[in-house]
Amino acid sequence: MTPGRRAARTFQELHGRAPEVVWSAPGRANLIGEHTDYNGGLVLPFALPYRIAVAASPREDGLVGMTTVDDSGHARAAAPVPLAEVEPGDVTGWSAYPAGVAWVLRDAGLQREGVELVIAGDVPSGAGLSSSAALECAVALALLDLAGRPVTDDSDRVQVARWAQLAENDFVGAPTGVLDQMASLCCQEAHLLLYDVSTEEREQVPFDPASEGLEVLVIDSGTRHEHSESGYADRRAGCEQAVKQLGVTSLSAIEPRELPERLSQLDPALRPLARHVVTENQRVRDTVALLRTGRTWEAGALLTESHVSLRDDYRVSCPELDLAVDVAVEAGAAGARMMGGGFGGSGIALVETERGPAVRRAVTDAYRAEGLADPRFFSAVPAAGAGRDLDR
Ligand code: GAF
Q1: Whose CA is nearest to atom 2 of ligand 1?
Q2: Which pLDDT score is estimated for 126?
Q3: Which of 53, 139, 151, 380 could form an S-S bond across to 101 if both were Cys, CB 3.0 to 4.6 Å?
Q4: Residue, of 2 and 152, whose pLDDT is higher
């Protein structure tokens, strides 16, 4: 059963009526362009065929009711939140995401009444595939629809992404960029989304690796290191310091040719951060140029360069992701890299479809040899972005 159908059915069972609206939003993979978003740079994500769906109807008592339902039909309700009074810090755990979105829309003057939400999804959680951004986006779209402002126009989606990011930054308290929300809202089937965070320019880049005998293999390392949140916040703060020292608008305003001179003006501890951001933006441009000319295989080398930069300069990888990347490349992948915030989660490898099973086996064997739990794999095909869930 799809998440949308499960959410709608559970809503009916719990509340004795059909939900007024059902919207869903996907998790994401990012081909390349990591830790560039909050530096005003370039990202190149695509939507995964895994989604979070939200079934919703208004409630008259001013409360935000939130229930999740898992694939075996087990429902779990969070304590309802009073919309008019809720403030950051009041809600913790998973329900902080939907409550945060309601809070943002309340302050924007768009959410005036209570609401009942039932949430179902199949985005693997804790795997760095943006299940939380998918949840925020699906909730935002459902609430806007109930408020009489259904989002259909492509241009409204950037605003929704900003609201969802605000919920995550200011209500949940995670200082993330806008990559995940933009991917969930603006990606299209069979395309990558090239997004420039500074200019807000967007472009859909056709992406069909299967037509070149290739696949994007997602490797879930099954690990999540404790310092992932503090590590992310530290890197972000380091980049902000570098911006101040250089007097630039963002690290992405630095051209690759000015990099050596700019680095020499920086505190040595901050140089690797700036180098990663500037070179990563260039790798995104180079990747798009290769894809546009049907040279997808060659883009693999850029993925591996991105990994090396994230590992050595930005220092957000971890031994489990390094192992997956090294072994995938040794086993014949065109390239591989860690993906997302880092310190655990998933990596991706670009592989010839017929070599996929050998790459999976090699990575699994290497994990076993290190006494690690088996990683999980899936072949990721670019799917549709968020929308009204009609499949129910
Ligand atoms: C996480 C964040 F949520 C994104 O905003 C982005 O910074 C990413 O890490 C790194 O590219 O997914």
Answers
A1: 176
A2: 87
A3: 139
A4: 2
Atom number, ligand 1, closest to the C-alpha of residue 133? 3
Q: How far apart are CA 165 and CA 137, in angstroms?
A: 9
Residue type for 171, please? F
Strands annotated E in the chain: 21-30, 42-43, 45-59, 63-69, 75-82, 114-121, 191-196, 201-206, 214-224, 335-338, 344-352, 376-379, 387-388
Q: Are 375 and 367 in contact (CB under 8 A)?
A: yes
Is CATH 3.30.1360.40 the right assignment for the domain spanning 3-206+383-388?
A: no
Class of domain 209-379: alpha beta
Instruction: Please choose from 136, 162, 179, 251 the residue to mutate so as to test ligand 1's pocket, defined by most ligand atoms within 8 A of CB.
Output: 179
Compute, in angstroms, the gap from residue 214 CA to the centroid of ligand 1. 26
Q: Which residue has the tokens 């090239």?
A: 194
Do the domains at 3-206+383-388 and 209-379 have one common CATH topology? Answer: no
Write the pLDDT tens digit of every residue in 120-172. 999 998 899 999 999 999 999 999 999 999 998 787 999 999 999 999 999 99
**DSSP characters for 251-288?**
GGGS-GGGHHHHHHTS-GGGHHHHHHHHHHHHHHHHHH
Cβ atoms 62, 115 nearer than 8 A: no
Which residues form the pocket of ligand 1, taking CB atoms under 6 Å from any ligand atom? 34-35, 37-38, 176-177, 179-180, 340-341
Residue 203 alpha carbon to ligand 1 centre in Å: 19
Contact (Cβ atoms closer than 8 angstroms) between residue 362 and residue 326 = no
The pLDDT tens digits of the residues spanning 55-110 come to 999 999 999 999 999 999 999 999 999 999 999 999 999 999 999 999 999 999 99
Q: Which of 37, 122, 145, 180 is catalytic?
A: 180
Q: Is 180 a catalytic residue?
A: yes
Going from the Cα of 130 to the center of ligand 1, the distance in angstroms, rounded, reads 9
Where do the domains of the chain lie? 3-206+383-388, 209-379
Cα separation, 335 vs 305, whole angstroms? 8
